Structure formats: C-alpha cells, structure tokens
Amino acid sequence: MTTAKQLSGKTALITGSTSGIGLATAHVLAQHGANIVLHGLVADEEGQAMAKEFESSYGIQAMFNGANLAQPEAISALMDSAIRTVGAVDILVNNAGIQHTETLEAFPEEKWQAIIAINLSAVFFTMQKAIPTMKQKGWGRIINVASVHGLVASLKKSAYCAAKHGVVGVTKVAALENAEYGITANSICPGWVDTPLISAQIQDFADKQGIEYAQAKRDLVTTKQAIPDMAQPNQIGELILFLCTDAARNISGASLPIDGAWTAQ
Ligand code: NAD
Questions:
Q1: How many CB atoms are closer than 10 A to CB 180?
Q2: Which GO molecular function annotation, any one, does this entry have (predicted)?
C-alpha cells in the first residue's frame, strides 16, 4: 500500500524543525500531504522563508513559529496560534532538544534547568494543549523524540537522561489516558543521529583522542552501537511517518529504539 498523500488534511506541528531530525521529519510528513507548523530558534525572516519554501515544494499549507520552549507562556502562545490558524494539531512531534555534557557533581544549575524545561516540560505543555482538539476530532498522533538515553544512561548526561526518561514516562501516561479517543502516543529512542546536536561531543572526543573529527565520528558510534553507522535524520522521519499511518493505530505507549542495536547489549 502506498502512503503517498495519506496525511492530506492533517496538520503536523514539529518542534525544533528548523534543523536536524525535526527538519527532516517536516520534509517527510509534507511529502505525504500534511500541513506543517515549522518551529525552532531561527530569525523570524528565516523561518517564514522556510515555510514559503515548504508550501511551494509540497503544495501544502505551512507556517512558522519561533517560540522559545524554555518559557511555558511562549509554548501556550505557540499552540494557541497553531490551533487558531490551522484548526487543530493532528500530529504533534515533540522533537526540540538540547544537550550539555558534564559530570553530575559539576553540572551547572542553569544547564540542568534548561534541559529539563526544553527536553521534558515542553513535551508535557504541548501535549496538554494539543490533546483536547485531538479528542474532539477522534484522531491524533503524538510522537515524542526521546533517545536511547530515555532507556539507558551514559556518563556526563544526568540532565539529558533525566529528561529523556521523563519523556518516555509521560508519553506512556498520554497513551493510557487517551486510548479510547483514537489518539496514540509513542516515544522514539534514537541512538547516534548525524545532526548538529552531537557535533560538540564529537569534537570533544576528537580532542581527547588526538584524532581528526571524521575519525572521531566513526569511532564514537562504535563505542555504543553494534551497527557502525549513525542514522540519518530522514530515517527518524520515516519512522514517525509510519506511526501516523493507519497500520500503526494499535502502537501506543511504546518506546521504539532506532539505535543500531545500542540497547540490545
Ligand atoms: P538539532 O540541534 O539539529 O535541532 C534542535 C532543534 O531544537 C532546532 O530546531 C532548535 O532550534 C530547536 N531548539 C533548541 N532549543 C530550543 C528552544 N529553547 N526553544 C525552541 N526550539 C529550540 O538537534 P537534533 O539532533 O535534530 O535533535 C532533535 C531531537 O532528537 C532532540 O530532542 C534530541 O535530544 C533527540 N536525539 C538526537 C540524537 C542525535 O544523535 N542527534 C539522538 C537521540 C535523540
């Protein structure tokens, strides 16, 4: 069965869709006919230009919002504006996230607060706003981009692991509470994905090992994964697309690894 244009008439809001996994996901969902709410921390002019580009490339409706997810009132305004403009957020992809690596003892308080706010609390607030209209329509897809760090831990990632384990947990609650309304909620748990988010970690590894960036990128993957390649962002987008299909209507409350067998070990 082809999935072409099967998301026509649906609107997808993807947080953090100006870069990396979110941007790739926006392209995949738009290719399949969804209207897109782009979101991320870029200048308004750049975001509006991206939305125009989406409209002309895919023949869909697109809008951009640059809400800072560290601020609950900005999240509220983002959700209200999306629902007012396009009627509903049928597909909510909570993807925006940040990283900071440091030992627990030395972890800066402001980084802890920012990671919890952006990577975890924002997921709660967007779901709280999106669910009522999903319920009214009797259909909704919530896909929260967690991480393998929602399932297992790594050194120097206390805030990130706490937030991503929290995402996995709150997603399960969303799945249970909305199971009778045609709404599914799932977490995706990627391993290494080739995006700007991990470039600081690769550089750090390269510096410590005294090797080139490209070599560090290859070596870092196999410290954790059995499959020696990083996933590409569009692979995460394709998994998100599958979760939006009718075939996936019974998948809910799951935490799906796409991690090159990282968590199989
Ligand atoms: P990225 O850095 O390429 O993109 C992050 C996006 O989030 C950008 O659009 C940015 O503008 C937005 N963002 C950051 N802070 C924000 C804020 N305060 N308010 C609003 N938007 C904000 O990152 P990515 O690698 O594409 O990561 C996307 C998600 O995938 C994150 O949640 C990340 O934790 C998760 N993830 C990434 C990897 C990986 O290896 N790259 C692995 C597992 C999980």
A1: 9
A2: 3-hydroxybutyrate dehydrogenase activity
